[in-house]
Amino acid sequence: MRVSRYFLPVLKESPSDAQIVSHKLMLRAGLVRQTAAGIYAWLPIGYRVLKKIEQIVREEQDRAGAIEMLMPTIQAADLWRESGRYDAYGPEMLRIRDRHDREMLYGPTNEEMLTAIVRDELKSYRELPRTLYHIQWKFRDEVRPRFGVMRGREFLMKDAYSFDLDEEGARQSYYTQLLAYLRTFQRMGIQAVPMKAASGPIGGDLSHEFIVLAPTGESEVFYDAAFEEFDWQQSDLQYGDAAGLKALFDRVGSTYSATDETHDEARWATISDDRKRTGRGIEVGHIFYFGDKYSAAMGLKVSGTDGKPVTPMMGSYGVGVSRLVGAIIEASHDDAGIIWPESVAPWKVGLVTMRQDDEPSVAAAEGLYTDLRNAGIETAYDDRDERGGAKLATMDLIGLPWQVIVGPRGIAAGTVELKRRSSGEKQELSVESALARMSE
Ligand code: ATP
Ligand code: MG
Fold it and tell me: What span is annotated as the signal peptide, if there is one (predicted)?
């Protein structure tokens, strides 16, 4: 990408309508623009990050055996009358009428729709278990949309739904998603601690929220320092390993973590003071088992092993894809701007000419740009005729992991400067070595 031909509207001043650092930086670095309260347009650079996050979520869902599909944003009110939620949902639901005066809504979630779809298709216990998911925009008419994309009204969510023959099977589906979530967030360079969540209508221990620690988070959190040494990747654990998955779940469950909603003072008191951690956090995911709540209400049945009808047990698993863009910035920034973890960065490298009027520099930068692209390295090349200092400030603001800085003095000696955004560490190297380093 050449910055001179791109659409990257950065702001020098911090916008006064933004209260938290991620929202300020998303506006300043040109990731989003608000188009109505709680509704955002994703500008090109923000959209690249959103897509990268979405892709990590997708790959980890696929690896865990979940099956991708796509359901519409607009739903019929009658579908929600079947579960009884049309009246129960309240003013957060955006209700719409079409030209024939039929009641519709913009989906805040998809339990009803998917239950109705599988009800018409699944016939036998042999077709279970199944976990289906989609990554689709949702609308919730939040009372107080705020903090930019963190609490928007329109937002992108991955929502998966599991269908099992019995509770034992549903627990396995739940453990599988638990592992998929640990891996998903770890790949994005953030630590999202699974915390016991309020379990809703049916009780039980199968409800966890995944919380990224950040001072601006909306929930107060309490957890055992053991989570600081937790193995988030669990590389040796296979998805088919039922005992291993249960052991992981037991380990998560026995290591204290809770939000203000589920905090248990008695259990907290048993943890030694030096291991108590408190703070604030952002909910980026939520996994949830709800048994036959929707399947029973909506008449989803399959024939069981003995030929008698069985009502499948369900769970749902959400990831706030668009919220994650803000949450990652909250967890990874400094005074100069965003510091993207490499896996979600809009580009890996920012190539900058300090003097666009210096022919040898421009020639070297053009050559490097071609070589980087040929090596398949995502590069943003700031070839604008601007002050070098201002261009570097923009690079720091948009937070690409690496900067390759090409200036007249270095080029005369055959070198460029390589800067690592996260540490600020700088190094002079030959053009070839810089290219080799970026290709590693
Ligand atoms: P919250 O408690 O933050 O209102 P929720 O519990 O209502 O969220 P879920 O129904 O569990 O949300 O949705 C799954 C995920 O979708 C959440 O973990 C969160 O990351 C994301 N999400 C929910 N509401 C919003 C919103 N208004 N804006 C952005 N992301 C959201
Ligand atoms: Mg939730």
Answer: none
